[in-house]
Amino acid sequence: MLLIYTHKITPRFSFVMKQIFNRILGIEVVFTEKVEDFIKHSGAKITYTKLPLQNEFFVRSNDLLFEQGINDLQIKVQDWDGIPCFFGTGERSNIPFDIFSASFYLLSRYEEYLPHVKDEHGRFPPSESLAFENNFLEVPVVDIWAKKFLSTLLERFPDLKAKENSYSYHSIIDVTSSHCYAHRGLVRSFAGLVLDLSSLRIKRIFERIAVWFHPEKDPYNNFSWLINCHKKYKINSMFFFQFADYSKYDKNVSINNNLFKFLIKSISDYSIVSLCASYSSIHDTQLLKKEKKNLSNVINRPINYSRIRYNRVDIPVTYRNLVEAEFTDDYTMGYTHEIGFRASTCTPFYFYDINLEVQQPIKVHPFAIHDYAFTKQNKLQEITSKIDKIYNEVKRVNGNFITIFSNELLGQKSKVSWKQLYEHVLKNYNV
Fold this sequence. Notes:
Elements lengths: L1 E4 L5 H14 L4 E4 L2 H6 L4 E5 L7 E4 L17 E3 L2 E3 L13 H9 L22 H4 L7 H16 L11 E8 L10 H13 L3 H12 L9 H11 L2 E6 L16 H11 L3 E6 L7 H15 L5 E4 L8 H8 L4 E2 L18 E5 L4 E7 L4 E2 L9 H17 L3 E7 H4 L7 H12 L2
Parallel strand pairs: 1-2, 1-3, 3-4, 7-8, 7-15, 8-9, 9-10, 10-11, 11-13, 14-15
Antiparallel strand pairs: 5-6, 12-13
C-alpha cells in the first residue's frame, strides 16, 4: 500500500490519483491530510504539496488539483527523456514534472471547456488540442508518464507491489446504415432512384436495382463476413446500431422494419450490441432514453454502452445526458478524421465534470483509430504503417487498443480494400 500526503484532498486530486495508481499502475493507494499519520507510516509514501515534510519521496504540486472551475492556464510543453510533458516542478521534486496535474488536464478534457471554434457538427477540432499543437496526439502520454513515475518510485521502494495491466484489443463496428439500398421502403427507394437518375450515377442505378431483387447483395450487408472474421481471430467485438427515426443526419433503415430488427437480434447472439445514439439525441435526453429503450426491446437485454453519431462529444453536456439515460460506458472519446488519443490515454477512465467538480458515474473508453481517418489514403501499406505506430504505443504501456470501423466503409469499393485492411487489423493487433 502507498500513502500519499497532501495539504487538501479535493475531488480532482482523488480522481486523478485513483486513475494513475489504481487503474494504470495497479497500486493500492490511500490519502491523508494529517502530517502525523504520514510520519508514522512505515511503508511506501510520497508527499504531494509545495514543500517536502522530511526527506521523503516528493512531487511538487501544481495548483490545478486544488482549484475550482476553469482558469486561463499558461502551459509550456517540455521534454522529459524524449516524452513531451508540462507543469515543471523544480529541483527539489523527485520527478521533473507534476504528472498528476498534467494528467488531470488531459483526462478531464480541460481545454474543451475553454473558448474554441467548433466544427460544422459542433465538435471540438483536434487541431486546437494541446496534443496536436505539440505533436503528441499519437502518443498516450498519460500512461507513459505513469510508467516512468513508477520506475522512479520503485527505486525508492523496491518492495512496492504493482499489478501490471494486460494489453487488450477491442473492435467496434459502427452501424449507422445497415443497408445501402435494401429494406428502405418504397418511398425512400424510389426517391433514391430518382436522385441517382438526375445525377447520372449509372453504377449506383444498376447496383440499386440488383439489390432490390437480391437484398443479400447489398454492399453494406457484410455482417456475416464480420461475424466469421471475429470468430476466426477470437475478437472482442461490439456492434453499435443506430436505432432512430429518420432525420437529416440519421438515415438508417426504419426501426419498424422487421428484417432490420431480426438482423440486430441475430448479431446479438454472437456479439455485444449497443446503441449508436442519433445525431438528434445529443441534446435531447428524452429522445436518447427512447432510442435506448427501443433497442433494448429488440435484443431483450439492457443497453449499457453508448456511442454518439459523428463522435459528437460536447463536454460536459454529452456525458451528463448519458448518465441521466443510465449508460455506464461510452466509446466516443476520439476523433473521426485524426488518429491518436484525444484524452492522451489508452486506459479507460471515469469522466470528470469540471463545472460540477464531480466524477460522473460513466466510464470512458478512448479509441485511437477510426476508419474515416484514412479515406484520403490510397495505399494500404501507408495506412497499416500508421496503425502499426499506434499499436506499438499502446502495446508498450499494456493499454487498451480500440478501433472503430463501419459496415458502410467496409462495403465500399475504393483504391484501398477496406475488408483487407480490417482483416489485417484483426490478425495483427489482437495479440
